[in-house]
Write a structure and sequence with these properties.
The protein is of the alpha+beta class. It folds into 2 domains: about 30-105, Orthogonal Bundle (Arc Repressor Mutant, subunit A); about 105-275, GAF domain (Beta-Lactamase, 2-Layer Sandwich), CATH 3.30.450. It has 9 helices and 7 strands; from the N terminus they run αααββααββαααβββα. A 5-stranded antiparallel sheet has the order 4-3-7-6-5, sandwiched between helices. The chain has a two-stranded antiparallel ribbon with strand order 1-2. Helix 2 (about 50-60) crosses helix 3 (about 65-75), helix 5 runs antiparallel to helix 9 (about 260-275) and helix 6 (about 165-170) crosses helix 8 (about 200-210).
């Protein structure tokens, strides 16, 4: 019997061959843009006008290569050159871009991911507190696999001097603001005024927090619970929030230079950098 002259039917249009690999597609990059950004990065990090030779050295390229990038950046307003010294610095376009980026930043949004990562790494509770109308207020709480039973919830207002979180705020906020809040807190809790801010031991406590960049509490404010706190700063150098690590006394080594302390500092600093702090 002669072979059939009919051809095989075409494949169904809704059937597609399986891809040979599931590896993600590599996105196209423009190398010249990445190279040129090293010039802007050097100007950003130094924060001062730079001569061409020094700028090129910081950008890791010869001056003859850095100069065309600078010409293009000046045409776009991203850089400018002093007519007196010939030094280069960031231009008005870079300022507008930086201000626009800062306006889009939300400290709590930037800190939330770092807080979750820190809680997972350390297997400890991590709280974020901002300065509220009544004082330091917890706005996020990430708990470990085995939650620590402490009187701490989202919305909790923390004492200014009787908690480590409050003390860190007191160390970095303007003195007038701290005095006013301390008086209000004392009036609500005890009644009458308080002069504790001027006590020598209080001044020493705040100086130690500024010197180490962190606050530390053993069995405070709750017995058997240790605390480490680190401030997060914004682009203006002002305290934006406090990241607090909490754990049981027998498990959590609440030393500033301990592995947990270094992790806390690392994550708090990462948030500060994203907010524009140096």
């Amino acid at each position: 019997m002669p072979p059939s002259s009919r051809s095989n039917p075409p494949p169904s249009p809704d059937r597609h061959p399986e891809p040979a690999t599931s590896a993600p597609k590599r996105q196209r990059r423009i190398q010249s843009v990445e190279v040129g950004m090293r010039v802007l990065q050097a100007l950003t990090e130094q924060r001062r006008p730079l001569p061409l030779k020094e700028l090129a050295q910081l950008a890791d390229m010869p001056p003859g290569k850095a100069h065309p990038y600078l010409v293009s950046f000046m045409a776009a307003g991203m850089a400018k050159q002093s007519p007196l010294t010939g030094h280069y610095e960031l231009g008005p376009g870079a300022l507008q871009m930086g201000l626009a980026a800062l306006q889009q930043l939300d400290p709590l949004t930037e800190a939330s991911q770092e807080a979750a990562l820190l809680a997972a790494r350390a297997d400890l509770s991590v709280a974020l507190a901002v300065w509220g109308q009544l004082g330091p207020t917890v706005v996020r709480l990430d708990e470990p696999r085995y939650p620590l039973h402490v009187n701490l919830r989202v919305g909790t207002v923390m004492s200014l001097f009787n908690t480590i979180t409050g003390r860190v705020f007191a160390a970095y906020l303007p003195e007038k603001m701290v005095r006013t809040m301390l008086e209000d807190e004392h009036r609500r809790v005890v009644g009458g005024s308080s002069a504790s801010f001027d006590a020598p031991e209080v001044r020493q406590m705040l100086d130690e927090i500024r010197a180490t960049g962190m606050g530390r509490g053993l069995s405070m404010p709750q017995p058997g619970v240790n605390t480490l706190c680190a401030p997060v700063f914004d682009a203006a150098g002002q305290i934006a929030l406090v990241m607090t690590m909490i754990g049981p006394h027998g498990v959590f080594n609440a030393e500033i230079d301990s592995p947990a302390g270094r992790m806390l500092r690392e994550h708090a600093d990462a948030v500060s950098r994203r907010l524009g702090a140096r």
